[in-house]
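Why does residue order matter? Because the sequence determines the fold. Keep that principle in mind as you read this record.
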Amino acid sequence: MAKVYERIADDLRRLIRAGELKPGDRLPAETTLVDQYGKSLPTVRQALALLQAEGLIEKQHGRGNFVRRPRKLVQRSNDRHQWEKDRAREPLEHRAQTGATERDTGLQLDDLVFSAKYRETAADAGMATAFDVPEGTALLERTYRTRYRAEPAPFNLTRSYLVRDVIAGNPELLDETKEPWPGGTMNQLHTVGIEVDRVVESVTARPPTAEESEELDLPPGTAVVILRKTSYDTDGRVVDIADVTLPGDRTELTFTTRLERW
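Structure:
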């Protein structure tokens, strides 16, 4: 049998899903809900906490509880890698028109706010093993954030690593002010004669850290999806490693596996 607070949550959830309470609407004050349902304030707060944990409402300090606005969905498929490779050798004018984020979200370039930070770092034991280089080898660490202009939080948290000496032949690849780079990493590697042969992605999930919850503006109880993307060149050498933290409430991952015909 449902508990009292669960029945209150069910009723409010029904109003939200039916559109009687729309995204951005403020819910009645907690004291009003106490009178409406004839239950205690702690019980009403339990119901609201449940809806908040589900990501249906958000509590704004000093203002009350509001129906949470759905965030722009990101639909990321493994077809994106071939799409990026096909564009890597296109003229600049073509590459500059759109990018992978626009493809995944359906947004336009002007809808996005992009930032990138570069720094040189030394390969620790894990990165040295992954790149098959000596520990301490200089890496270029690149941190990316892209968000929808109408929203405060980025779509994901991305940290990418390249072996510095591998890409140093093109000094522009060491310059964060050249971002966003038309054609992305595939084109960047192409400028130093590297063709990506395959991309391997491993996916796990876990609770977010406090910092991730804050930066990604996650509803309470929302998990993050951790994607490690490893790119190999045509000689089987690892040329790029990217760790992407994806918010579980707005990310859809689609994997299509094409099978050889008999």
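Strands lie at 57-60, 64-67, 74-77, 112-122, 138-148, 157-163, 196-206, 224-233, 238-247, 251-254.
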